[in-house]
C-alpha cells in the first residue's frame, strides 16, 4: 500500500487552473448558498426514509405544523424492523408493528410513495434505490441510515444522516453541510481468483482501520474497480462508512449506464439523452487534487475474514489473529476486550474455526448477483449438519428473480433457509438474532459486539467464503475449493 | 428555540474504550420507539448488565460505578462510529450528559450530537490520556468546558486545552438555534435554486 498526502486543503474551491474531483463537481452543483466561514446549504435530490429513523422527524414536522416540502423526492420502505417470515401476516411484535404503521400513516399524510410490506418493490432501502433506477449519477442522496454510502457506486454524493437531519430534509429538501476532505483509493491490477469486492473492502479496512477515512469523502478508482459489476461496486461503497468516510463514490462509466437503462424510474427518451450528457462529465479531472491518495495492488488482496469486533479487524482467511506483540501498546486494552468477546486467543489461526450460523444478506451482499454466486457454488452440495444457514434477499424483486431462476430450489436442497426481504440478522432488530456465544459468518457489514444479537460473535466475509462455511461448518479458504473454470469475479 | 449551552463544570464518567460504536451506545433492539424520550435507561445496555438482566449490573463498567457521575462523558478514540442512529445522542443526553470528550469522533455522531445540544469536545490524545489518569486516581475530579472560550480545563491542575468548533455551530449552541430554523428561513433561496436547476 502506497500513500501520498497533499497539503492542498479541499476547503478551498478548485482554482488556479486545477481540475475538479468527481466529488467537487457534484457538490458545487448542489450548493444553494454558503455561510461565511461555515457550512453550506446543500440541496438534496433524493431522500430515502425507513420506519426506524423517521418517526421522530415526522413528529417534529407535525409539531411545527409544516408539511413535507418536496414529497415527490422522498421514497419510503420498511426494512429494518420487519419480520422475514410470514410477511403477509400482521407483525406480531407490538413496537415493531407500531413503527411500521407509523411510517404508513406519515407517508399517507404527506403524500410520499411507500414501498411497504407486501409491495412488490419493498426491500432494504439501499437495495431498492438502485434496482428501481431511482439512484442515478450526479445526484445528492441521503437517508437516515449510515449505509446510504452504497448509492455512491453510481457516482453521486450519498450519505447517512441522523433523525434531526431527516426532519430538515423533509422540511426544506436541504441540509447544512461542511465540505469534507477528499481521499482517493486506487486499486490497480487484476484480482486473484476467489477474491470478491467484499474482500477488497475488508482488505482496505484492515489497512486503514475503522477510522481511517473519517472526515473524508472517498473515491474508489483504478482498473480493478472499473472491472467490477455495479453490485460489486455497491458492496465497496456500502462499507466506506466502516472506514468512517462521509461517503464513498465511483465515477460512472458504461457499466453504470447499462445498469440503469430501462429500470423502473430511469429517465427515458429525451430526458435520458440529457442525463447522459451530464453523467459523462462526472469524473475526477486528470489534474484534480486529493487531500490523500492511497494505492493498493489488486494482487495483494486475498479472501478476507474479520476476527474482532470492528470491521477494521480483518485478515486473510489463511492468516492468524495478531499476537500481542504485533499490537500497539495503547490499543492493547481494546484488542484484548475484542478477542475476549470473540472467545479467541491472540495469535490463533482462523482457518478451521467452527461456525454455527451463516447469514447471507444485508445491503452489503443480498443482491441477485450475490445469491446467484452462492447458488452456483452450493448447487448439488448440502450444508454441514450443525450449521444453520439463512439467506435473506435484499428485496422483493431479488426474491422474485431468485425464484424464477430456481435458486430457491438449490438453497432448499442444500438445507439453506430462504427468508423474506429485510435487514434481518444484520442488526438483530427483529427476531432474526444469532444466539449468545454462537459464531456466525455474515456477509453483512458490522461485527460490532451484540450487533447480531446480545453476545453473538460475528465474522464478516464475502458471500463465497460464507457459502463455503455453510457447506463445511468451518472457516475455509475458497481458493482451495473452487475450480478456476467456475470462477466469477464479483 | 432550545436552551443554549455555554459553561459546564462537572465531575465526569471516564470510558477508556476505543471505537465505541453506536450499537454499543444503544443496541438496535431499543430503537423501536416513535418518540425521542426514554433512551437513557438503555444507554450502553449490553455493557452495563449481565445477560440483559437489570438485576445483574456489571461491576467493572464505569457507568455502574457509583464513584463516577456527572454531566461529562470522556471516551477514547473514534467515539460514535457505525450506525447513524441519532438515538445514540438522545440516549447520552437523556442519561444526563451535556458534553462528550474524545480525541476523535465519528462524523455522523458528531452532527447528531450538535443537533441535540450535546457538545462533542475533541481534545489531543495526550490531553485525553491525562484526563483518564486524573480520574483513575481521583474520581471526584472536575472538568470545566467553556464554549465561549472554546476551552476544556482540568480543575485541580488548571491544565487547559482549546477545542475547535465552527463559528456557525458555536452561535447555534450558545443561543439555542437549530439548523432547521436556519433552513426554514432560507426557503426563498431554496426555491430559487430549484427554479434555476429545473426541479
Ligand atoms: S441491511 Fe443492515 S446495514 Fe443495511 S440498512 Fe439494513 S440494518 Fe443497515
What report would you give on this structure?
The complex is a heterodimer of chains A (490) and B (199). Chain A is α/β, with parallel strands linked by helices and 490 residues long. Chain A folds into 3 domains: 31-177, Aconitase, domain 3, CATH 3.30.499.10; 178-300, Aconitase, Domain 2 (3-Layer(aba) Sandwich), CATH 3.40.1060.10; 305-489, Aconitase, domain 3 (2-Layer Sandwich), CATH 3.30.499. Chain A has helices spanning 22-30, 55-64, 94-110, 125-131, 163-172, 197-208, 223-226, 230-238, 254-260, 269-279, 332-342, 368-378, 396-404, 407-414, 463-472, 478-481, and strands spanning 2-5, 31-34, 40-43, 46-49, 74-77, 113-115, 140-143, 157-160, 174-177, 181-188, 216-221, 247-249, 292-297, 304-306, 314-316, 357-360, 388-391, 417-418, 439-442, 457-460. The two termini of chain A are 22 Å apart. Chain B is α/β, with parallel strands linked by helices. Chain B has a single domain, classed as Aconitase, domain 4 (Alpha-Beta Barrel), CATH 3.20.19.10. Chain B contains 8 helices and 8 strands. Chains A and B meet through α2, α3, α5, β9 and α11 of A and α4, α6, α7 and α8 of B. The site of iron/sulfur cluster has 13 residues of chain A, from loops.
Any idea what the shape of chain B is? globular
Query: CATH superfamily of chain B, please?
Result: Aconitase, domain 4
Low-confidence stretches of chain A: 7-15
Our count of domains of chain B comes out at 1
Q: What is the number of E strands of chain B?
A: 8
Q: What sequence of helices (H) and strands (E) makes up the elements of chain B?
A: EEHHEHEHEHEEEHHH
Question: Which secondary structure elements does this structure contain, and how are they paired or packed?
Answer:
The complex is a heterodimer of chains A (490) and B (199).
Chain A lengths: L1 E4 L16 H9 E4 L5 E4 L2 E4 L5 H10 L9 E4 L16 H17 L2 E3 L9 H7 L8 E4 L13 E4 L2 H10 L1 E4 L3 E8 L8 H12 L7 E6 L1 H4 L3 H9 L8 E3 L4 H7 L8 H11 L12 E6 L6 E3 L7 E3 L15 H11 L14 E4 L7 H11 L9 E4 L4 H9 L2 H8 L2 E2 L20 E4 L14 E4 L2 H10 L5 H4 L9
Parallel strand pairs in A: 4-5, 4-7, 5-6, 7-8, 10-11, 10-13, 11-12, 16-17, 16-19, 17-18, 19-20
Antiparallel strand pairs in A: 1-13, 2-3, 3-9, 14-15
Chain B lengths: L6 E4 L1 E4 L6 H4 L19 H4 L23 E4 L11 H8 L4 E4 L4 H9 L3 E4 L2 H13 L5 E4 L4 E4 L5 E3 L4 H9 L3 H6 L2 H10 L3
Parallel strand pairs in B: 2-3, 3-4, 4-5
Antiparallel strand pairs in B: 1-6, 6-7, 7-8
The structure holds iron/sulfur cluster (SF4).
Iron/sulfur cluster binds next to loops of chain A.
Amino acid at each position: 500500500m502506497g500513500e501520498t498526502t497533499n497539503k492542498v486543503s479541499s476547503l478551498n474551491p478548485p482554482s488556479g487552473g486545477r481540475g475538479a474531483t468527481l466529488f467537487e463537481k457534484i457538490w458545487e452543483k448542489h450548493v444553494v448558498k454558503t455561510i461565511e466561514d461555515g457550512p453550506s446549504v446543500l440541496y438534496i435530490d433524493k431522500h430515502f426514509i425507513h420506519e426506524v429513523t423517521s418517526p421522530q422527524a415526522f413528529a417534529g414536522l407535525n409539531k411545527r405544523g409544516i408539511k413535507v416540502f418536496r414529497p415527490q423526492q422522498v421514497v419510503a420502505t420498511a426494512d429494518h424492523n420487519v419480520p422475514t417470515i410470514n410477511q403477509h401476516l400482521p407483525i406480531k411484535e407490538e413496537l415493531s408493528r407500531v413503527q411500521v404503521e407509523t411510517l404508513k400513516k406519515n407517508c399517507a399524510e404527506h403524500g410520499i410513495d411507500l414501498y411497504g410490506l407486501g409491495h412488490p418493490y419493498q426491500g432494504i432501502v439501499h437495495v431498492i434505490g438502485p434496482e428501481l433506477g431511482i439512484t442515478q449519477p450526479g445526484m445528492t442522496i441521503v437517508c437516515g441510515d449510515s449505509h446510504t454510502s452504497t448509492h455512491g457506486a453510481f457516482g453521486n454524493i450519498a450519505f447517512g444522516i441522523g433523525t434531526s437531519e431527516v426532519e430538515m430534509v423533509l422540511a426544506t429538501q436541504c441540509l447544512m453541510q461542511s465540505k469534507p476532505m477528499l481521499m482517493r483509493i486506487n486499486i490497480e491490477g487484476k484480482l486473484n481468483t476467489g477474491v470478491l469486492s467484499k474482500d477488497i473492502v475488508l482488505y482496505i479496512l484492515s489497512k486503514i482501520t475503522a477510522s481511517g477515512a473519517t472526515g473524508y469523502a472517498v473515491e474508489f478508482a483504478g482498473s480493478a474497480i472499473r472491472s467490477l459489476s455495479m453490485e460489486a461496486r455497491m458492496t465497496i461503497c456500502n462499507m466506506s462508512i466502516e472506514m468512517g468516510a462521509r461517503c464513498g463514490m465511483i465515477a460512472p462509466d458504461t457499466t453504470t449506464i447499462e445498469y440503469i437503462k430501462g429500470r423502473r424510474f430511469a429517465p427515458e427518451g429525451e430526458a435520458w439523452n440529457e442525463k447522459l450528457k451530464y453523467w459523462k462529465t462526472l469524473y475526477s479531472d486528470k489534474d484534480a487534487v486529493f487531500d490523500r491518495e492511497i494505492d493498493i495492488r489488486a494482487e495483494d488482496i486475498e479472501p478476507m475474514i474479520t476476527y474482532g469486533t470492528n470491521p477494521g479487524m480483518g485478515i486473510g482467511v489463511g492468516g492468524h489473529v495478531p499476537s500481542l506483540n504485533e499490537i500497539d501498546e495503547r490499543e492493547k486494552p481494546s484488542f484484548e476486550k475484542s478477542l475476549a468477546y470473540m472467545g479467541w486467543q491472540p495469535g490463533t489461526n482462523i482457518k478451521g474455526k467452527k461456525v454455527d450460523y451463516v447469514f447471507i444478506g444485508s445491503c452489503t451482499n443480498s443482491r441477485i448477483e450475490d445469491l446467484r454466486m452462492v447458488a452456483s457454488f452450493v448447487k448439488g452440495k448440502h450444508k454441514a449438519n450443525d450449521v444453520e444457514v439463512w439467506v435473506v434477499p435484499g428485496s422483493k424483486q431479488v426474491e422474485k428473480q431468485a425464484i424464477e431462476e430456481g435458486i430457491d430450489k438449490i438453497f432448499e436442497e442444500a438445507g439453506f433457509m430462504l427468508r423474506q426481504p429485510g435487514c434481518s440478522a444484520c442488526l438483530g432488530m427483529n427476531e432474526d438474532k444469532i444466539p449468545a456465544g454462537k459464531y456466525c459468518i455474515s456477509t453483512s457489514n458490522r461485527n460490532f459486539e451484540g450487533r447480531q444479537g446480545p453476545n453473538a460473535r460475528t465474522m464478516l466475509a464475502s458471500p463465497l467464503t460464507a457459502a463455503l462455511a455453510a457447506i463445511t461448518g468451518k472457516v475455509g479458504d475458497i481458493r482451495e475449493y473452487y475450480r478456476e473454470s467456475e470462477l466469477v469475479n464479483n | 428555540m432550545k436552551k443554549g449551552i455555554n459553561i459546564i463544570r462537572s465531575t465526569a464518567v471516564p470510558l477508556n474504550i476505543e471505537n465505541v460504536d453506536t450499537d454499543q451506545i444503544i443496541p438496535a433492539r431499543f430503537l423501536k420507539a416513535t418518540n425521542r424520550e426514554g433512551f437513557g435507561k438503555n444507554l450502553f445496555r449490553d455493557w452495563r448488565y449481565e445477560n440483559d438482566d437489570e438485576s445483574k449490573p456489571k461491576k467493572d463498567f464505569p457507568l455502574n460505578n457509583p464513584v463516577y457521575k456527572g454531566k461529562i462523558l470522556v471516551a477514547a478514540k473514534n467515539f460514535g462510529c457505525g450506525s447513524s442512529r441519532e438515538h445514540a445522542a438522545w440516549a447520552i443526553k437523556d442519561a444526563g450528559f451535556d458534553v462528550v470528550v474524545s480525541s476523535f469522533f465519528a462524523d455522523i455522531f458528531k452532527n447528531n450530537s450538535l443537533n441535540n445540544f450535546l457538545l462533542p469536545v475533541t481534545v489531543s490524545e495526550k490531553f485525553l490520556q491525562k484526563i483518564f489518569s486524573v480520574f483513575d486516581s481521583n474520581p471526584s475530579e472536575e472538568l470545566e468546558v467553556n464554549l465561549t472560550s472554546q476551552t476544556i480545563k482540568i480543575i485541580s491542575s488548571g491544565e487547559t486545552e482549546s477545542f475547535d468548533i465552527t463559528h456557525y455551530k458555536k452561535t447555534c449552541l450558545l443561543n439555542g438555534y437549530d439548523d432547521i430554523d436556519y433552513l426554514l428561513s432560507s426557503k426563498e433561496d431554496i426555491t430559487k435554486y430549484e427554479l434555476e436547476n429545473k426541479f
